[in-house]
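Duplicate of earlier report; HEAT repeat domain-containing protein input re-posted below.
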Amino acid sequence: MMFYTVIGIVLLLLSAGTIAVMVLFEIRDRRAGNIQQGKRLPKKPYSQAFLDAVPRAYESAGTLRGMLTLLVEQCPKENGRAKAALDYLEHSRYQDYETALAYLSDSSAVCEKQIREVLKREIQKTTALTCH
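Output:
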């Protein structure tokens, strides 16, 4: 009888420790404030004004990170995806432009075209190619 009591107490302590560790990890992750984890991106398509602002922001900033920062500042009503893309560039392990721009996209044909143009110009700039 004593054996079963000891095993029960040991299992109780193990499960309590596991739960405590899970809670600590959750608190740590929430303090980090990662946007793309736990929050859904808006499904509403972009306005034409936002789509027109994308190439202008890239021209002004000269970099993808700068473009995303400008879009977050200049378009407060439609900056959810831009914040997620910027967060990806700053905090992800890979920090690749294609995935960051996938966060920015609303999946419409017009938006995809704008993003492809920006990505093409960024690639041309980094590889010093002038392809059309």
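The mean pLDDT is 88.

Merging into the original ticket.
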